Amino acid sequence: MLICEAELGIGLVGLGRLTEFVAMTLWADAQARALTAGTGGTLRDIVDTAGARLYPGYFWTHVTVPPERLLERHQVWDRVAVGVDVKTFGPILESTYVLGTPSELAEGAPTTSLPAMRSAAMFFVDGTPGEPQPATPKKGTVNALPKLEKPPSALARFKDVRASGVIDAAQAHRLRLSAPVACPIVTGREIAAGQHALVFAQFVKLFDAAERALLSELEPPTPAELVDHLAVLDRQIFYLDNCGLSSVVMVHARGTIEHCDPKLTGTSDQVAAAVLKLEMTAYEATTLKLLSVAAATKLFVVPWNRPGLLHAAERLSRRYGVTA
Amino acid sequence: MTASIEATVLSVLVEIARTHQPTRSTVATTDSLIDDLGFESLDLATAVAQLEIQLGIDPFATEATLGVVRTVGDFIAVYERAARTSS
Lengths: 324, 87
Known about the structure:
The structure holds 2 protein chains of 2 kinds. Chain A is α+β, with helices and mostly antiparallel strands. Chain A folds into 2 domains: 1-163, Hotdog Thioesterase (Thiol Ester Dehydrase, Chain A, Roll), CATH 3.10.129; 165-324, Hotdog Thioesterase (Thiol Ester Dehydrase, Chain A), CATH 3.10.129.10. Chain A has 7 helices and 12 strands. In chain A, strand 10 and strand 11 (290-303) form a beta hairpin. By secondary structure, chain B is mainly α. Chain B has helices spanning 2-17, 41-55, 72-86. In chain B, helix 1 (2-17) packs antiparallel against helix 2 (41-55) and helix 1 runs antiparallel to helix 3 (72-86). Chain B starts with a helix and ends with a helix. The model of chain B has no long low-confidence stretch (mean pLDDT 89). The interface between A and B is medium-sized, with 29 and 21 residues.
């Protein structure tokens, strides 16, 4: 496993704590290093035999976070360590990642006890508008990585989700947004100037906007500050398509609130108030292209010394919560 | 060798084509991968990986680009050329 360290400077987390978006970008950076280790180049130096620059485009990511080691325990100026293993199946990449403190990774803590991500990606030609063009890296521009003998299991699952448009058709969610949330894609905010596609992790922010809207529609509405205390435990995203500048992404969300053990996080200064399970879809407003489908499990984690938030969480749980 | 390369490529391509068209039993060299067989990015990538396992070569890492492959015949020609180069 390749291990890289990073400092959570203000460029990554502002003055706050580690977020799912930032963790995913740290994992992607680690994958980039694994792909180019020993080549003397960076991800921008990976080309095909015609010299066209390639990039690895994710089509599936799955983040899992143990409740005792939430991402939010890492805050600005902390050092974190990120580990990655990449295997290839032709131009398809299957990667596993972990994130913890440098000492946790140095001590070889079991990866099941740390925040982790699994992903599937493949190489595409960079900068081509329209349909992504698959490509194979020219020998020597990419690290020689272990090879898989059969396709990553995510590939069949991806095709299934793309065909059905849902991750778990059997899940009957009680809560549903009254209308999709419109998220305009703005240069310098969701997308970099001159780019034609969203960075994969940006979808997390779009889904979070819909989740916030869903919770605000409840009666009584969920206080915004309580929504700020939602921590991700699990999120699976299937990236079916992408969109660019001036697009408006419509995001739909349905969900279920479940009761949980208040001591789920294993710490005495926090109360685990409820679990929120969500399934979300994102599509482009004009073309109605389905861009992404996601499922998430999140935990309301409230400091024990915030009684107002605890009361709001209790109201939410009593009014809408079900027993899993 | 050439005949076995063609047979291997056809066998891999028909297997992938069946995921879109379950009743399909053969593919022709003139078939378009996209228009006739319904191939997409992941199918092309899967074909390249399967053929690397079965033939031990990946011509797209050394001399060709996936962008030039339009038909089943193009695919076979790329692998036959790579086999001649590597032998």
